[in-house]
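Same chain as my last thread, 674 residues:
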Amino acid sequence: MEISDKKWKYMDPLPKNLPQQLIDTVKNLKILAILMSRGIDTTKKIEKFLRGGAEYLHSPFLFEDMQKAVDRIRKAIALKELILIYGDRDVDGVTAVNIIFDVIRNYGGEVEYYVPFDEGYGIHKDIISKYAQENAKVLITVDCGISAKEEVAYAKTLGIDVILTDHHEPVTETFPTPYAIINPKIRDTKYPFKDIAGCTVSLKLALGLIMTYSRQYNKNNLLFALESGEGFAGDISWICNNVEIARKTFNSIEELSKEIKEAYRIYTFNAEAAEALIKKDVLLREKIIVLETKCGDNLDDLLIAKTKMDYEDERIKDFFESSLDICALGTIADSMPLVDENKIIVYYGLRFISENPHSRPGLGLLIEDTLKTKDSYNISTHSISWNVTPVLNSAGRMGRGALSAQLLLTRDKFQAQALYTDIIKLNTERRELQFENIGQFKNLLKEQCNPDKDKVIIVNATNLEHGVTGIIAAGMVKTYSKPVFLLINDGKTAVGTARSVEGFNIIDALDNVKDILIKYGGHNQAAGFMIDNSNIEEFRRRITDYAQANLISVDSIDTIIIEGELKISDINLDFYNQVETLSPFGLGNPKPIFCINGVNVTEVYVFGARKEHLKFKISQKGSRNVQAVFWNKSRYEEIINKDEIFDMAFYLDVMDKNDGKIAQLSIVDIKPSF
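reply #2:
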């Protein structure tokens, strides 16, 4: 009997004649092979991926409206104008609220925040009106607002300047025209990385605001790099707020001298050139800064080195240490790909949490309850996404998202305990509601759909409690591998939640039926919408037709990407630790799957509360035994307990033993060897 019908796809082997510099940078060829298979194939890319810090974060001022936004906030702080921060009620939203609220408050701003209760997603006119009566002059949206054209226009009529920060897809060509808009997904933006969470957009706004208090704000600085060879020739980059505004070349020290006179500061890697310039004009001694680099010598490297020096400023260091922890939470909760900026934010954010889990008393209580092990904290992207963010999300799902915002914001231990107790109660209620609604939706699924034949699943329920529809929709996607649209109607209108599969853009689908929607918004894989009940059947028909034309069938046979073959001798703590240098793992940066071929299986037994897991030992041609675990696969006990030879696909993992930790295999798939 064959255990698996999954296909194993092996990555390409390392090319021959690899540059020695690449090998020296990584040292382990198996790790280098993984990096190169993921497109991280140059020394600079590897340095950034493995060792990159905040200096690799893109400048906030790459957002075209950033200067306009931060200047307006500074004006409001100076004039003591009331600033309202309006956020979404999920973890991404409440962390985004926390980040910008903390910074504005620390600079003396009059600031309040609002997280929706039962109003639903987005900003609402009645809330804007309420704060207008309290004389709010600036409204900052975080993680919402890109589809709120009418609400933004309404705020303008009340004399409120709207700074719209969001990361969702614009759903129409005519999105809102606020005082300033900061969103990496708007058309023609220069911001180079699109897949950041709402909390990271908020982080950039906060960092931009802090940078306005620097002497270098809005000053033109100059970077110069010499070409290799003799003489003074090379390239010049003019930058403002760490964004390049012009690039030129120079062919002599005289040309360079003429160019730099108007610069506020001058940065270079070349000490000899700096001294030659100072001899020509001694006044330049105070303006020229010679930086050090360990990687490269061009203008791009110089800007990274300058940014690193800038971020040594105590205000910015303190900001990152107090913000990257919750920015990591929001990024993980919103399932952002862990590449580029996101990997840096999550890596350092989780490190800050690990080193000081109680810096935020409320978060500390949650971590203590869910992630505390015998002698440490089990903090990873997986443990955060499974144990921490669902509890924080539960308050928002039950219409009390402000509780999670307060829990993360407060530094008072007694208040944190009271808030945490309330959130735990809401989490229990959320689980009960989820259980009830799953039953209702399952029954309606049988009545309204044929999941074996339908291209998409659309279920319409009446008078259910809102809040957990997204969780249920996501579960259905996993079960049926099809896009899911769940609606709850109250007799007049229905609020819908959509979740999708890879290759089917939910926003595009909703855009195709926008003429019958009241409003909609979200990501390409997750969205929300509202529709009049009279249009539900037309919605069902048109979405089904759209899916028929646009949904690419998913191969029924799963494919496992194998990123290296190991021997028993490779399975040890040292190699496990080398694999962990590629972390944090998640979407866009999955944990590597290896294979080991031709192994014998011994000492098979089941374990777990429901005897659901399988544990056994393997050896290879008389080698030492290594422990393996096959999670939720105890039904295979009899199959692999035979005297056969197997190939296994697995993640490397560790387990605690009385005398320390040992490496083990977490099995993904097993096949008989042939």
